[in-house]
Structure formats: structure tokens, C-alpha cells
Specification:
CATH architecture of the largest domain: 3-Layer(aba) Sandwich
Order of helices and strands: EEHEEHHHEHHHEHEHEEHEHEHEHHEEEE
Number of strands: 16
Bound molecules: 2-acetamido-2-deoxy-beta-D-glucopyranose
Distance between the termini: 16 Å
Structural class: alpha/beta
Helix content: 25-40%
Largest sheet: 11 strands, mixed
Number of helices: 14
CATH superfamily of the largest domain: Thiolase/Chalcone synthase
Radius of gyration: 21 Å
Shape: globular
Number of domains: 2
Strand content: 15-25%
Length: about 450
């Protein structure tokens, strides 16, 4: 019989803080995690000054007691030198998530059935840059022996599995901005199909580097219109949106077979939500641009609903991918409008208005916010949505069918929710979460 899968642990490192409590309370307080690169210490020396886009979502530096990031709070100095930053974030978020779930496998049997699935969109762009520069300017002897293992995007999974002796599936997805959704979705299927009983799953990214921002800037993917007002720069579904905000962080969940969670004494209170569906699709359209009608997004959401056994009318909330790009938001909105045309109760919002776009970590972090909105019956606001849609080719009425939760969060019963992520390369993923009830639904 196919297994039920529940979420029992959460861990976060985001531009709003280190730890679920800090990220959550800052976002409830309506804070923005976005800053200007002009405030960075190396603004001129590191070349940020040449780049046209100036807004980023950076994990704040400082002591852990204030919900900020200092590697010394998590690692001995020699150890942190061996770990790329995206891997560091993932180890910290895994520790939080596994502590929350009260699950550290100790017997050999438990280790064998606990797996890992953590990916990154880019891996370590810092190490790639530094090693390239040193090879070019100094030569062979300056290439670090650890460069390749440090940089590989599956090394977060490798390091987590070694630290916690997770000997089940050792998996890592790298599907650009859909990485987090696919990591959690694949883990859901592993448990459903009995490859593992517990999976530590998520996405991690630390690509705030002048090379990354310069490249996204040259491709005109990132915003430039709001350089002087960072907190206004990310405006999903708004007519003045002009690109995403490059951000970093990590989200890790513990997924668990329901019977396993109950057998070790967890109760309904300890279970955040149930994962009930997963859909994925390809656009077969263009390397970075979605099709106008949002066909790929439509098929991912449709497949997800079919597996979940839920009708479009039953969905209460969609945590949209909506990165604040002109065509991405439009095509996602069209896909939603088509699939949910008969849903009068649907709320849609995008966390990217306060966080920016965490690339490979986005889907995992936003899944955690979706899970929390199910647990607490609160849907969060979309900030900066002052004038929905609004372009000639983007008529306003297409953005008025649903409740976009403008400006303020709302109390709302959330029984079923979707979380979307779409990535460069034409890849789309959707997860469906529901409130956990002890009786089978
Ligand atoms: C765990 O897996 C290893 C390797 O397959 C096997 O030798 C061992 O017996 C397993 N342990 C348990 C308790 O199942
Ligand atoms: C993590 O991976 C690095 C290679 O990138 C390795 O040198 C280090 O020993 C690993 N640490 C742990 C705790 O697994
Ligand atoms: C998981 O895979 C990584 C990368 O291939 C490897 O370094 C690590 O040792 C593996 N972990 C385990 C527990 O086998
Ligand atoms: C993200 O969305 C969740 C779910 O709606 C919400 O509770 C949370 O406040 C949002 N966070 C941010 C940073 O907007
Ligand atoms: C949201 O807030 C902005 C800025 O304060 C304001 O201009 C706008 O009218 C508000 N929108 C709604 C629907 O309340
Ligand atoms: C599906 O994936 C593609 C990858 O290019 C992405 O750009 C697009 O946004 C997704 N589809 C839609 C309609 O959003």
C-alpha cells in the first residue's frame, strides 16, 4: 500500500534571518530582507559598482542569538574553510530541521532508512571564480585540491549525509530555480514507494557574488528600476515589475512516513502538514523564457492535483513562483487563471516580494512558508502590488480574478495549498500540501 507522507521538521536560513523563528517573526512584522549592494564593504574593490542592478537579498551577518549568520556559531574554523557557503547554510538548516523533528537516526537500521535530498541551482560560484582567477594569474599550483568537491552542487547532500550518518537514498537535484520543489517532491515519492522512511530534503543557494549578479544583470533578468529603494524592488504581478532580486539562503524539511512518525510518539501537534501531491513538467520552449500561455506551469499544477486527488476548486492558497519578471509572472498568472477559473475562494501570494529570489533554495523556503500557512491559517501578503498587471499585452482584468493578498497578511482557513517553482532550462514543479488529520481523508 502506498504510504502517507508528513512534514515533521523545518529549518531555514533566509535574508530575513537564521532559524524558522527569526525568519517567521520578521516576516509577520512585514520586514523586507532586501538591501543595496552599495552598503557592502567591498562595493568598489569587488566590482559591485560596475553592475547595473544594485538590490540583493543577503543573509544578515551577526550572532546566532540575534538570528544572524556567523559561521563560527556552527563550525570550527578549520571545518568551515573546507565547506562552501551553500553547504554551510544547508548543514545549519538541517541541524535545525532534524532538531525540530527530534530525529537523529542512531541505530544502523534507522540510518539505512533515512535519506537525504538537498540540491543547489549553482553550487559554489565563489570557489569557481577564485580558482579560475588563480589558475589564470598564478598557475597550476594555486588550484585547490578541494576545489571540485567544494563546488559540486550535490556536496551539500554529501556533507549532511556524512555528518548525520544518513545511509538511505543520497540524492541531489539541480534544476535551477525549481531545485527546492523537485528535492522535496522526489523525497515524497521515495517515501511513498518505500525507498526510505525518513528524508531530509530541501534546497540551498549562496550565489551572491559579483560574477553571479553581473551575469544575471547582463541577461536583464534582475531588477534595476528600484536601486534606491531596495524594499520596493521585488513586485510580483505589479505593472512596474522589471526583474527578480538575487537572494540566498536555504530551506530544509524532514519528511516522514506517517506510521513512522506516530510510532515514535509524535502527535497531531508535531505534524506540520501532509504532502499529498507532486507534479512536474517541461516547457520545451526556450532556455529562459516560459511560453506566453503558461502551458508548462499549467501541466505541472494539473498533474500535481491529479496525484493529490484534489479538484482545482478545493485549493485555498497558491504560493506562486512569481519572481517579479515581466513574462514569468504573466505566464504563471495565465496558467493559474486557466486552471482555477471556477475557484472563487483562491488566494495567491508571492514571498519573493519580501525575500527576493533564492534560486535553488526558493522552492524549499517557500514550501516551508506554505506549510506554516496551513499550520497557522494565515496567508502572507504580496508587497508592492500597487497596480496589478497593467501593461498593454498584460491586461489588468487578468490579475483581478483572485485575491492576491495585497499588502497585509490575512487570517484564512487553508486546507489545501500549492507551492510552485519554475526554472531556467524549462523545468516546472508543483507541490500540494494539506492539513494533517488523523483520520484518512
Ligand atoms: C544496513 O545496510 C547495510 C549495507 O547494506 C547492511 O549490511 C546492514 O545489515 C543494514 N543494517 C540493518 C540493521 O538493516
Ligand atoms: C564536507 O566536504 C568537504 C569537501 O568539500 C570535506 O573536505 C569535508 O571533510 C566534509 N565534511 C563533513 C563534515 O562531511
Ligand atoms: C553521498 O554522496 C556524496 C557525493 O557523492 C558522498 O560524498 C557521500 O560520501 C555520500 N554519503 C554517504 C553516506 O554515502
Ligand atoms: C510567505 O508566505 C507565508 C504563507 O502565506 C506567510 O505566512 C509568510 O508571512 C510569507 N513570508 C514572507 C516573507 O512574505
Ligand atoms: C498597498 O500599500 C501601498 C503603499 O503604502 C499603497 O500605495 C497601496 O494603495 C496599497 N494597496 C492596497 C490595495 O491597499
Ligand atoms: C516552466 O519552466 C520554464 C523554464 O524556462 C520557466 O521559464 C517557466 O517560467 C515555467 N513555465 C511557466 C509557464 O511559468
Amino acid at each position: 500500500m502506498s504510504k502517507r507522507v508528513v512534514v515533521t521538521g523545518l529549518g531555514l536560513v533566509t535574508p530575513l534571518g537564521v532559524g524558522v523563528k527569526h525568519s517567521w517573526s520578521n516576516l509577520i512584522a512585514g520586514k523586507s530582507g532586501l538591501i543595496s549592494t552599495t552598503t557592502l564593504p567591498g562595493y568598489k574593490e569587488d566590482g559591485w559598482d560596475q553592475i547595473t542592478s544594485k538590490v540583493i537579498g543577503k543573509v544578515p551577518s551577526g550572532p546566532l542569538s540575534e538570528g544572524k549568520w556567523n559561521p563560527n556559531d556552527h563550525f570550527a574554523e578549520a571545518e568551515s574553510r573546507r565547506l562552501a557557503e551553500f553547504t554551510q547554510y544547508s548543514l545549519a538548516a538541517s541541524q535545525e530541521s532534524m532538531t525540530d523533528a527530534k530525529w537523529f537516526p542512531s541505530s544502523e537500521e534507522e540510518q539505512n532508512y533515512t535519506g537525504i535530498s538537498v540540491g543547489s541551482g549553482i553550487g559554489s560560484i565563489q570557489d569557481t571564480y577564485e580558482n579560475s582567477v588563480k589558475l589564470d594569474s598564478i598557475g597550476y599550483k594555486k588550484t585547490q585540491p578541494l576545489f571540485i568537491p567544494k563546488m559540486l552542487s550535490n556536496m551539500a547532500a554529501g556533507n549532511i549525509s556524512i555528518r548525520y550518518k544518513l545511509r538511505g537514498p543520497n540524492h541531489s537535484v539541480s534544476t535551477a530555480c525549481a531545485t527546492g520543489i523537485h528535492s522535496i517532491g522526489d523525497s515524497y515519492n521515495f517515501i511513498k514507494n518505500n525507498y526510505a522512511k525518513v528524508m531530509v530534503a530541501g534546497g540551498t543557494e549562496a550565489s551572491i557574488h559579483p560574477l553571479g549578479l553581473a551575469a544575471f544583470s547582463r541577461a536583464r533578468s534582475v531588477t534595476t528600476k528600484f536601486n534606491d529603494e531596495p524594499e520596493k524592488a521585488s513586485r510580483p504581478f505589479d505593472k512596474d515589475r522589471d526583474g527578480f532580486v538575487l537572494a540566498e539562503g536555504c530551506g530544509i524539511v524532514v519528511l516522514e512516513e506517517l506510521e513512522h512518525a506516530l510510532s515514535r510518539g509524535l502527535t497531531e501537534d508535531d505534524i506540520y502538514a501532509e504532502v499529498i501531491g507532486y507534479g512536474l513538467s517541461g516547457d520545451a520552449n526556450h532556455i529562459t523564457a516560459p511560453p506566453e500561455d503558461g502551458g508548462g506551469a499549467y501541466r505541472a499544477m494539473e498533474m500535481c492535483l491529479q496525484f493529490a486527488g484534489v479538484k482545482p476548486e478545493q485549493i485555498d492558497y497558491i504560493n506562486a513562483h512569481a519572481t517579479s519578471t515581466v513574462i514569468g509572472d504573466r505566464s504563471e498568472n495565465r496558467a493559474i487563471s486557466n486552471l482555477f477559473k471556477n475557484n472563487k475562494n483562491l488566494a495567491i501570494s508571492s514571498n519573493k516580494s519580501s525575500l527576493g529570489h533564492l534560486l535553488g533554495a526558493a522552492g524549499a523556503v517557500e514550501s516551508i512558508f506554505t506549510i506554516l500557512s496551513i499550520k497557522h491559517d494565515i496567508v502572507s501578503p504580496t508587497l508592492n502590488l500597487d497596480n496589478p498587471g497593467g501593461r498593454d499585452d498584460d491586461p489588468k482584468h487578468l490579475f483581478e480574478k483572485f485575491d492576491y493578498v495585497v499588502n497585509k497578511s490575512q487570517q484564512k482557513q487553508v486546507r489545501f495549498a500549492l507551492c510552485n517553482s519554475f526554472g531556467f532550462g524549462g523545468t516546472n514543479g508543483t507541490l500540494c500540501f494539506s492539513k494533517y488529520k488523523s483520520q484518512a481523508q
